[in-house]
Write a structure and sequence with these properties.
about 70 residues; mainly alpha; about 55% helix
Length: about 70
């Protein structure tokens, strides 16, 4: 999975994707996508590909370094 390659937990991934909601809701959305219970949209796929290539959102701090 992409987020494991990145070394991110579900909440970090959701925040990188700028998902809205409580931390619990964000984590649940990421877990639902990974489990196949929720569709992964094209924009989320593109964003994850960008993260894997090294791109980060403006103002981003890598977990553990910010």
């Amino acid at each position: 999975m992409a987020r494991q390659i990145l070394g991110w937990d579900a909440l970090t991934t959701g925040r990188a994707l700028r998902l809205a909601g409580t931390p619990e809701k964000i984590e649940a959305r990421i877990h639902a996508m990974e489990a196949g219970d929720r569709d992964i949209s094209g924009p989320v796929r593109v964003a994850m590909e960008a993260f894997l290539s090294g791109w980060r959102p403006a103002g981003w701090s890598e977990p553990g370094f910010g």
